[in-house]
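Researcher: Last one for today. Full complex below.
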Amino acid sequence: MFTAVSKKNLSDEIGDQIINKILSGVLSPGNKLPPERDLSLQMNVNRHTLREALRKLDTLGLLSIRQGDGIYIRDFRESGNLELLKHILYLRRDITSDIMKNILEIRRFISPEMAYRAAQNRSEEESEHLKSLLEQDLPVEEKDLAIHQSIARGSGNILYIFILNFFNNIFRDFGALYFSFKENQAASEKFHKNIVKAITEKNPESAKKIMNEILVYAENITLKYMENKYEEI
Amino acid sequence: MFTAVSKKNLSDEIGDQIINKILSGVLSPGNKLPPERDLSLQMNVNRHTLREALRKLDTLGLLSIRQGDGIYIRDFRESGNLELLKHILYLRRDITSDIMKNILEIRRFISPEMAYRAAQNRSEEESEHLKSLLEQDLPVEEKDLAIHQSIARGSGNILYIFILNFFNNIFRDFGALYFSFKENQAASEKFHKNIVKAITEKNPESAKKIMNEILVYAENITLKYMENKYEEI
DNA sequence: TTTGGTGTAATGGTTCAACCAATAATTGAA
DNA sequence: TTCAATTATTGGTTGAACCATTACACCAAA
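Model: Here's the assembly. Have a good evening.
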C-alpha cells in the first residue's frame, strides 16, 4: 500500500548534488574539484561530511582522489560501475525510462542463461532447497525472491548472484505493485513450480525457456506500470 | 615492465579488515557491529577514519547503518554488488582462481552479445569513430580498450558500458602482460580489423562470432598466465 | 641542457573534542 | 496492561588542529 520513504543524511545529499553536476556535464572528466576546504565552505557543510560523500563517489568510480594533489572527475563511461547506474536511474528522471528498458533487455538475456546453468550445475543440496521453498508458506513476493536467489546460487557462477542483486535492487519498488495483482501472483506461482521442476530434473533448455517466458510476461506488465507511474508525475 | 603499486590509506585498510571478517564468516549477517566509538577504539583509529571505511562498505552493500540504532552486517549474497566482487577477488586469494573462471565464463557469454547489438544499433557516428580508431597510431593495448568501449557505446544499451568497465577493471593487470607478446598483439590487430568491419557493415552474426573467437583465444592465454602467476606466489 | 636534490605551498588524510538527531529501552502514570 | 514520557545509546555533524603526500619552483652539479 505504502512504500518506504528514504531519509537521506546530509552526506548523501551532497553526494547526489555532485553526482548530478557530473552527470549533467557541469563537471567534466579531468576537471579538478575545488579543495575540500573550499568545497565544504561553498556547500556549507563540514569537511568531514563532505569527505564521506566524496568517498562514496570514489567507490562509485566517479572520482579520483589523490592526497597532496587534488580530486579529479573521472569519465564515468570508463570507470563507472553498475552501482553508479542505480544512482543515474534515480537522479536523471529524464532518461529513467530508457535505462529501465536497457535493464529489462539485459535481464531477459542473462536470467534465462542463469537458469540454464543452474539446471546444469545445481548441487543436490540446492535442489532440495528449491523444492522446500516451493512448499513453504511465504508471501509470493518473498518466495519469488528466494527462488531466484537459489537459482543464482545453483548456477555455480558467483557473478549471477551479484547481477541478480542488481536487478532486484532496481525492481524492488515494482515488486510490491506487481504482486498486488492476483493474476501476476498466479503466473509467478506457476513459474515457480515449472522452473523448480526443470532445474531439479537437470533440464537446462526447459529451464531457460521457462525463465524467458516469465520475463516476457513480467516485462510487458512492468512497462505498463512504468507508463502509469510517469503519468502520475 | 613495472606495474604500479597501490598505496592504501588507513581508511581502506580498516575497510579491508572488516570486509575480511565478513567474508570469512567471523561476522555473520544480522550481527550488530560494536558502536563506532568502541570500534574505533578497538582498531586504534579515529572515529572519522573508521566512518569513512564504513561508508565505503555501506556502498558495497555489506552494511546497513542506522542512526540511533547501530550498524548491522548484511548478507552480501543478497545485497552485495559487482564492486564488492572485485574486493572479494583481491582479498580472498584462496578462491581467486575460481572467481576468475566465473568472470571469464560470463564475459564470453556477454561480450559477443554486446558486439551483436552494436552491429545492429551502432549509429553512423559510432561507426566512423570505430574506423578512425583502427587507423590511429596507438599502443595496441590502448586501441583494444578504446575499441571495446566504442562497441559498448554502440550497442545502444548503457549497461554494456558498465559491465565492460567491470571486466576491464578486473583484467587490467593482465593486459600489460598479454600485450607484451607479439603474437597476442597480432591476434588483437586482426580482431580489431574484423570486428570493426562486421559492425560498420551491420553484420550482427559475424560480429558475435568474431568477438567470441578472440575471447576464446584470450581466455586460454589468460588462464595460462594465471597458473604461472600462482606458481610465483 | 639535463638531472637530481631541496624547500615551500597546497591538498588530502587523520586526530581530538564536542554537540546534534534519531532510535531503542526504560520508566511510570492511567 | 497499555501507552506516553523520559532516558540512554548510537550514528550524524561540526570545528579546529596537525600529519603526510604531492606538485612546483628553485638551485646545484654533471
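The mean pLDDT of chain A is 93. Strands of chain A lie at 63-66, 70-73.
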